[in-house]
């Protein structure tokens, strides 16, 4: 485990009122060291530990509920996850655009670009708005 992130991860878990476990530490370390969003198969690569799919799923769901990570919608059947910046328990504030590179298959949060306000017709109430832009990232150009 990278020692530079241990204190940040433990503090994040403490603030979120979650106990510090090896599984939570290792999964959050992946988020802190990733260049972009993560998929379920990324968690299967954890060195020196075996986490079954149920444990990973439950840990990710707990992190979602606590506002530690957010889901990124995709056009395929995969789910991507990324760290939240200003979210809290059961209340996500990650209103930004996501970018999917067609060459390297990475998914990135473009936090500097807000999702524009969408005016829905009377009677409609949005609970979630997601924007995915696909193309080629700067690394692949």
From TrEMBL:
Zn(2+) binds at residues 101, 104, 137, 140. Binds 1 zinc ion per subunit. Binds 1 Mn(2+) or Fe(2+) ion per subunit. It comes from the Bacteria. Gene3D superfamilies: Winged helix-like DNA-binding domain superfamily/Winged helix DNA-binding domain (1.10.10.10). Its cofactor is Zn(2+); Mn(2+); Fe(2+). Keywords: Iron, Metal-binding, Zinc. GO terms for molecular function: DNA-binding transcription factor activity; transcription cis-regulatory region binding; zinc ion binding. GO terms for biological process: negative regulation of DNA-templated transcription; regulation of secondary metabolite biosynthetic process. Pfam families: FUR. Fe cation binds at residue 95. This is Fur family transcriptional regulator. It comes from Chitinophaga parva. The lineage of its organism: Bacteria, Pseudomonadati, Bacteroidota, Chitinophagia, Chitinophagales.
């Amino acid at each position: 485990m990278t020692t530079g992130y241990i204190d940040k991860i433990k503090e994040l878990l403490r603030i979120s009122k979650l106990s510090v476990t090896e599984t939570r530490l290792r999964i959050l370390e992946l988020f802190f060291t990733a260049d972009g969003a993560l998929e379920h198969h990324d968690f299967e690569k954890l060195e020196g530990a075996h986490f079954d799919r149920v444990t990973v799923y439950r840990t990710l769901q707990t992190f979602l509920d606590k506002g530690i990570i957010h889901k990124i919608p995709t056009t395929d059947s995969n789910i991507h996850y990324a760290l939240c910046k200003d979210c809290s328990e059961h209340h996500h504030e990650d209103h930004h655009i996501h970018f999917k590179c067609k060459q390297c298959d990475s998914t990135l949060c473009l936090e500097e670009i807000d999702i524009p306000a969408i005016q829905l017709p009377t009677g409609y109430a949005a609970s979630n708005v997601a924007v995915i832009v696909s193309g080629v990232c700067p690394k692949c150009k």
